[in-house]
Amino acid sequence: MGLNPDSRVRFNLERASVLLLEDSGMGMGILVQILTGFGAKVLHRCESVAEAQETVGRVELDLVICDAMRGEGYEFIKWLRASRIEPNRYVPVLLISGHTPSHAVAKARDCGAHFIMAKPLTPITLLERILWIAREGRCFVECDTYVGPDRRFKNAGVPPGMVGRRRDDLKGEIGQAEGPNMDQELIDGMVRTRRVEL
């Protein structure tokens, strides 16, 4: 996303209800400082999964930030997504962890988290993820093996003004056509429905 730290964009979570699930006092303090810096006033601080589950049952939430907590965070998110507590089962969830190897990223995705973020958190990174969730609006998927946000992402290339980090990054500019355009008859033939006898 590439949010410029020097930009004058204002972002305010004043009306948001945010659940923080973090069993470390220092970690909780950092989250509270960052979110109050974004204007958040309604913070539900939970140190255990049981406390978080109780909060989910009585308060309508706009965002959940959950620590992995040696695996308990993943289980909480899975419980939240499978619960019938409306509308909280659809709330955006950011999972934070001290270690984010590929298997942890896959586990976070499969339990229903929107994103997993590595500690230490910085305000700008957390803000980028919150804005990304707000902008993307991914559909909610519910099936036998998964409940959560659609795991597919659009690959629209590198944001304007940013330099790509990977060899296979899409280019921002489309450029001129390299071959002749298809004629309309060929396009119509591809789209036209046809009766097929089996």
Automatic annotation (TrEMBL):
Q: Which residues form the Response regulatory domain?
A: 17-134
- Tell me the SMART domains matching this sequence: REC
| Signal peptide boundaries | none
Q: Which InterPro entries match?
A: Bact_response_regulator (IPR050595), CheY-like_superfamily (IPR011006), Sig_transdc_resp-reg_receiver (IPR001789)
Give residue numbers for the modification (4-aspartylphosphate): 67
Keywords annotated in UniProt = Phosphoprotein
Coiled coil, from the record: none
| Record organism | Phenylobacterium koreense
Q: What is this protein called?
A: CheY-like chemotaxis protein
Q: Which domain of life is it from?
A: Bacteria
